[in-house]
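Why predict the complex rather than its parts? Because the way molecules touch one another can change local conformation, and only a joint prediction can capture that. The input here totals 678 residues.
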Amino acid sequence: MVVSIRDVARLAGVSSATVSRVLTHKPHVREEVRQRVLQAVAELGYRPSRVARSLRVRSSQIIGLIISDIQNPFFTALVRAVEDRAYENGYAVFLCNSDENAAKEALYIDLMLSEQVAGVILTPTRETESPCRKLLEANIPVVAVDRRITDLSLDTVVIDNVQAAYELTRHLLEAGHRRIGAILGAPQITTGRERLAGYERALQEWELALDERLVITGSPKEALGYEAANRLLDLPDPPTAIFAGNNLLTMGALRAIDERGLQILQDLSLVGFDDMEWTSMIRPRLTVIAQPTYEIGRMAADLILDRIANPTRSERVIVMKPELRRRESVLDLQITERR
Amino acid sequence: MVVSIRDVARLAGVSSATVSRVLTHKPHVREEVRQRVLQAVAELGYRPSRVARSLRVRSSQIIGLIISDIQNPFFTALVRAVEDRAYENGYAVFLCNSDENAAKEALYIDLMLSEQVAGVILTPTRETESPCRKLLEANIPVVAVDRRITDLSLDTVVIDNVQAAYELTRHLLEAGHRRIGAILGAPQITTGRERLAGYERALQEWELALDERLVITGSPKEALGYEAANRLLDLPDPPTAIFAGNNLLTMGALRAIDERGLQILQDLSLVGFDDMEWTSMIRPRLTVIAQPTYEIGRMAADLILDRIANPTRSERVIVMKPELRRRESVLDLQITERR
DNA sequence: CTGAAAGCGCTTACAG
DNA sequence: CTGAAAGCGCTTACAG
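Output of the joint prediction:
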């Protein structure tokens, strides 16, 4: 039915060991024999079983990718980058959605172990006691993306969140804003905590006191962005600008602003993290921190491929630099300044 | 190092055949023995090797998913749906991006064969001579999504594109529009052809002649949407409404409209296919055909799971009904009607 | 440079 | 109801 290595060996008049050597580019095969084997392979349309290989060498040519949710636009470029690099190197990709759920994450990690994947890239759901410890114990390379795992020594690719949030906030301060609302992920999450720190640092530099009513944190989803923006705008002394801590929060804030019939720049300023191409394309007047998501994914993929090829122990932490994309809003902001 | 079925067998005092029977829920195992095995499994933290199983039964518990591009928002809900259903049923998912490239598609199909996947879901890049014929020949179930393969008998999940395009166009006609521009995918692609047909049918029903300058087709990407919208708006007698044939075309048209400082509904109407949640959230005044992408993905997944469980020959074609989402724009449209 | 043989970790007729 | 044995399709020491 399906042609196996033995069929090729028979046709080429060699042993299956020799066929294997040729196909895995091992040395010590006479050129003439090599050609005969290649000929037979072509003739039979032989396609080696990756499954059998995986069982034999105890490792499949598969990279596991566990992200929070592919429906979050932040992750699509990441996934795409990992897949591009993986397939270029002959690896396939298992994609899993953990939904920020540690139990689900643990389940998928068991799957990865059971499938003997070559390496795993994941956006960890928890900073400590991550189930991915099991992977490391099984000597499967792991790369954490977007967030860190604090109690484990492993490769990590993140952006400088403090710096990025600082720049966004400074951008608003320079435009004259003095009451700046912030909607952020809960400080238990690395990203939420770091972005808050950047916001605070900018305020300190301008010698402004932190008004706690202007900072709203929670689960960084669209719903919080909507609700928090409404709460901020309902304050007796509402902010003149809002800083949204990720793409979903930005979406939610936008929805609240739209519903109130407010115009961005005319009525208030909005800046945010843009983890998706679409936000700034549809709303060109937003100033955003553009996360280099594709590059982050590519870094992570290269890192894991390198680890697979060269297993070592040392931990590498790569901090990517996000880019502040000033739209025409820079000017507008100064015009609409209210104080 | 890693615990195998033999270790479990030894600890439970049975053969590995019995362990296998217990774990695969085969009948004919004494309850007492079953308990002993389960006990040993728990004690050792045994995790069966899916790789070994795959080799033995010549089929892995993996579903291949070959889409055009995960960065196209149309596909994210589809991917998510497939993954949800797959993992619920103990299957993992291989995700591949074909980029509408038949050679790449063929490559991934070879990968699927080599990995002995249980089934493949794909958005075909070509209507005829699809490389997925190989899968069918290897008795691997295949489900085509979004587009059809005309020269192969296989399960398919699509939407009624003719009807959807007809409804969108009719919506504009009822609001009084008489010059309606259409930006569509090339008629070589099923979706492009069918959506054009729906547009034409609506015009015919209103006894309007087709103005060829109002219909622009090509590669259905953002760039075409932008360029075509500009061309339409530059006409001496420009359309009062534009129908965009998919999400990317809608994005491009939006960009052109924004650049010209035009306001949707005040200056012209825009309707389109919305394959993403975001468009209508960010631009709430758009009237769109909302493709039930998640449901399409779920249907496809259920279909493939059913085929894996019950291999048969008959071909099933499922036509999903898309939903016309009239925003407040219905009223506005009538107000801004110009004739 | 090449082959015979073992073995990766399962499942499944076959026999009892 | 249970076990011994074969075999899925590869790779890799080992021997020559």
